[in-house]
Amino acid sequence: MRFGNPTLHGETAAINNCSEILTSEPYNLKGPEALKAFQDLSLYTTAEACPMCATAMRWAGFKDYVYGTSGKTLTSQGWPQLTLSSSELFEHTSSLPTETRIVPDILAAETDPLFRWQYDNSGRCPPGCRRARADDAEGSRTCIPGEESEEDLAAEVAGDVVKGAAKGASGIWSLLSVFFKVAAPVADEL
């Protein structure tokens, strides 16, 4: 909640941006015309929307609502969620003048890992972030902005050694593969 607005989720921001575009140059649609235009549009998102955003999508009247990672998966990874699924919520919107088709789990195998890093210490941080240390101010997040240091990489390799030893020979070969991927660029600089 970088801006202190708990309603500023990706889906509501997308709806606001789309409304702005439709009612500005070159389209210049009036409010009712912009709402009608939503009926020909699909909203794509990496994860299932929260109930607030799913409701906003229904009020907007999108033709399709397409998402990857499910709310259940987010919850299992530690993300705080309201547990009312989009499909459950949509069951209670039949009196609205439009219908929005839900297309769930599209590319979920690709989107699920995108959410693992924040609340799961075993998930890898995205590029441009590093694992938070106990003394970091951002105690509620496991990844924070910043590049990984040599110390972070050494800790990751040491963790892989422990995991590799526990897995036996196959784990050691995996560890060596990771080590050479990390060490090769460093050796090139020497």
TrEMBL record:
One GO BP: tRNA wobble adenosine to inosine editing
Name of protein: CMP/dCMP-type deaminase domain-containing protein
UniProt xrefs under Pfam families: dCMP_cyt_deam_1
One GO MF term: tRNA-specific adenosine-34 deaminase activity
PROSITE patterns: CYT_DCMP_DEAMINASES_2
Occurrences of domain CMP/dCMP-type deaminase (ranges): 1-90
InterPro entries according to UniProt: CMP_dCMP_dom (IPR002125), Cytidine_deaminase-like (IPR016193)
Domain of life of the native organism: Eukaryota
